[in-house]
From TrEMBL:
One of its GO terms (molecular function) is ATP binding. This is Heme exporter protein A. Keywords: ATP-binding, Cytochrome c-type biogenesis, Membrane, Nucleotide-binding, Translocase, Transport. PROSITE patterns: ABC_TRANSPORTER_1, ABC_TRANSPORTER_2. It comes from the Bacteria. Residues 7-224 form the ABC transporter domain. PANTHER family: ABC TRANSPORTER I FAMILY MEMBER 1 (PTHR43499).
Length: 224
């Protein structure tokens, strides 16, 4: 698979955040070019989710900087990102169509209609059903469809295969591959393999104190 050339570049330098009065992540630095994915691994509680939430703007960084060049340079990284976290970000009283329409209006940059996005994730028959009646797996797929109704160059995925069956996991692999081919960027925190082709990797380890473990692939784009 050949990734198209792209000028986007996510640069993160010495990023840190504090939660509950203590540092959760410190001195995180990496460069991620368009068309590439970064897989974040490490034990539970090490700060993988906090890193993604900081990039998304949901947690305030107390140190460092982050920029996404080559997209909408006047916007923050979080304003250019889809965040797919543990919570499904779904209003139970709204139908599936209404949920997706809300997020499409909020995000802007529409790409697919709610119905087309639900076809992609295999739950189009449920489009007018209130989200309260969905199973955990169906809710997860509806939340995944949020990424498809509006374009944002950066996908931040926190344990994205949680509650997905094998068919849905395969569909997620396809959608991620398509996003990367189009020049998008993906950062995924996970304990499970995601089927990504040649991703960069960032391993967070308590034994390394404030320094993340960067493998050789991650150090290729730039040296810090």
């Amino acid at each position: 698979m050949t990734l198209q050339e792209d000028t986007k570049l996510l640069s993160v330098h010495n990023l840190g955040c504090i939660r509950g009065g203590r540092p959760v992540i410190e001195n995180i630095s990496f460069d991620l070019p368009g068309g590439k994915a970064l897989v974040v691994t490490g034990p539970n509680g090490i700060g993988k989710s906090s890193l993604l939430r900081t990039l998304a703007g949901l947690i305030k960084a107390h140190a460092g900087s982050m920029t996404l060049e080559g997209a909408e340079d006047d916007l923050s990284v979080g304003q250019q990102a889809h965040y797919f976290g543990h919570a499904d970000a779904i209003k139970p009283a709204l139908s599936c169509r209404e949920n997706l329409k809300f997020w499409q209006t909020y995000y802007g940059h529409p790409t697919r209609s709610p119905y087309q996005a639900m076809i992609e994730v295999g739950i189009e028959d449920l489009i007018d059903l209130p989200a309260a009646y969905l199973s955990a797996g169906q809710r997860r797929r509806l939340s995944l469809a949020r990424l498809l109704v509006s374009y944002r160059p950066l996908w931040l995925l926190d344990e994205p295969t949680s509650a997905l069956d094998k068919a849905s996991e395969h569909k997620l692999e396809v959608l991620m591959a398509e996003h990367l081919i189009e020049g998008g960027l993906i950062i995924a925190a996970t304990h499970a393999p995601l089927g990504l082709v040649d991703p960069l990797r960032l391993h967070l380890d308590r034994n390394l104190a404030s320094e993340p473990a960067l493998d050789d692939a991650l150090s290729e784009p730039t040296a810090h």
